[in-house]
Amino acid sequence: MTHDASLASVRLITADVERLTGFYERLTGVVADRPSPEFAEVRTPGGTLAIGSTRTVGLFGPGSAEPASNRTAIVEFRVEDVDAVHAGLDDAVEVVTPPTTMPWGNRSLLVRDPDGTLVNCFAPVTAEARARIA
Fold this sequence. Notes:
By secondary structure, the protein is α/β, with parallel strands linked by helices.
């Protein structure tokens, strides 16, 4: 069976929507849409990062999501210049891996957002890596 599915967004649940949204705005340079104090969206050409308050979890089912507990997913943003993103970070951002060229041809910077989620800012730097995203 096939479905016509298209990834619309990834949503992070947080106890502090404003703090987390501000982090992603500074990291991406994109001003978030804030339709309510409980919800924000950082819309990029490739997809949307949604940020929801813990107070919205009950709408999906009590206890269905828990803030600041992710240890499997990595939020990734393709950027023009990984080293420039790194240079623009303030001391409050935890850098997990400084800019490094990976064996698959991407230059990557891995940081943690304020809730501990891993965030990869990457740019394809080899011809093979650029061809994969063309």
